[in-house]
Amino acid sequence: MSAEPIMEPVMTQVDPIDLLIAFEEASEMPIRPQYIEETGIVPPQPDEEHSDGIAQLFLQFNSAGFPLAGFGMGFRVAHKDGRTQALVIPDFYVRRRRATELDESYRKTHKGWYPIDMITLVGEVTSTNHETDTGPKLRTYAATGVPVYVLINRTTRTAHCYTDPTPAGDPTKAYYGNESKVHLGEPLPLPAPYPAVDTAPFLES
Question: CA 120 from chain center: how many Å?
């Protein structure tokens, strides 16, 4: 069973990367904390349906000819002045490129986090922290200009495709201009060149 997410405000004078490392080292169990809208978040442990659903997304995109589909990597969003704005680990993503030498240098400098501009499509599958995926994460992806955000909301039993990211001066005001929505079990249309997502695997058995 998934526990509730742990969320704590983070002191901005310290690089959030270092604070997340401290969270990991202090934990008695493996965790992968994230930093979104000045808050440190420890997501709940994924359940079987969550993990199986992500695997199905990966297989669908990989079979459709997207070898850069993946999951598990962390990405950093930077403020214009270079400070860390967000640290996210999407459930699923499609990269626009394989990691270059410059990307690997960035990852080394930022202690394991790749630049967010490697992503061209991002996906989240809700757990008990569905408010994070429908609020702060959505705004963060829009603020950084990720073109497509796919959200599988297991709480409302709906699937969403957000496009047309609209950044704002305040990242917490960013949004996506377009949204497509279907009930789980129905195919979710995505913009070209992506395939429609089969959402049936997310229905409860």
Answer: 12
Q: Which residues contact 110 (CB under 8 A, 6 or more apart)?
A: 17, 76, 84
Q: Which residues contact 146 (CB under 8 A, 6 or more apart)?
A: 116, 119, 120, 121, 122, 165
**Pairing mode, strands 148-153 and 119-125:** parallel
CA distance 10 to 204: 36
3-state class (DSSP) for residue 32: coil
Tell which residue, 112, 116, 136, has the closest CA to residue 9.
136
Nearest one of 35, 41, 42, 43 to 16, comparing CA atoms: 35
- For 74-89, the pLDDT digits (tens) are 999 999 899 999 999 9
Residue 205 has pLDDT above 60, yes or no: no
Instruction: Please name which of 175, 163, 138 lies closest in space to residue 36, comparing C-alpha atoms.
Output: 138
Residues contacting residue 8 through CB under 8 Å, at least 6 positions apart: 39, 40
> pLDDT tens across 157-192, in order?
999 999 999 988 899 999 999 999 999 999 999 999
Token pair 């990691």 is at which residue?
99
Q: How far apart are CA 205 and CA 197, in angstroms?
A: 19
- Asked if pLDDT for residue 7 goes beyond 80, the answer is no
Global confidence as pTM: 0.89
DSSP string, 39-65: EEEEPPPP-HHHHHHHHHHHHHHHHTT
